[in-house]
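Incident log, entry 3
Record: Inositol-1-monophosphatase (264 residues)
Problem: checksum mismatch between cached and fresh output.
Input:
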Amino acid sequence: MSPLISAMIAAADAAGEGLIADRERIATLTIHSKAGAADMFTEADLKAEATVRERLMAHAPAYGFLGEEGGLTPGSDTDHVWVVDPLDGTTNFLTGSPLFAVNIALAKQGEVVAGVTYVPAMDELFWAETGSGAWLGERRIHISARTTIEEAVLGVGIPFATKPNHEQFYTEMERLTPRVTGIRRLGAGAIDMAWVACGRHDAYWEQSVSAWDMAAGVVIVREAGGVVTDTRGNALDLMNGTVLASTPAIHEEMLAALAPAHAA
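Fresh output:
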């Protein structure tokens, strides 16, 4: 494990410890709304981001920092940017579900080169660095061995009240539900991508997703043997807002199913 990954894991672990403590006092947390009741954040999100930022800046103070809560702070090293979601799955966190995560990635010239997704309530730590494989704790992980879309279990980010592309989502469901074994909505894209990497899901897609939600998962999925593009099959752009992570075996069929609603 490199010093880079060690620093990222330490930051995720510290933030996760704080989130577990804050979960015990959910009733007293101050809840804020970004764009209506369906899109919330709390003081727990803010504390977790501050914890991650402090740890990462101590490791590499010249790097930029892009956080969900605080936005972008450019660094003197313009090639490197930390991309952080301190609490992916805030609604899950607030409603008692264990499916929330600390998501930390490092992008170099726009390409993700290292990622950590920590699910503190389940004590599952997913991590990867380019060229070093993908890991769940100390165990190497790989994508699913299933080879057909008929066998596939898919993860999806369903658009909620403040999200666009509802009609597109209905079309995707119409195309996919008759063909696959199952479709799951975890409520935390970071965990969806980690589950693709370890074979629990065969694919995950979302049509309106932020860079910090998917960044760590990009390298984790790729190092596990998967493919990550946007939902049109183009090279992934973290700022483009769409993502498809899948096994190579079903990637093309997934792209066909995710084609724009007006397509045949």
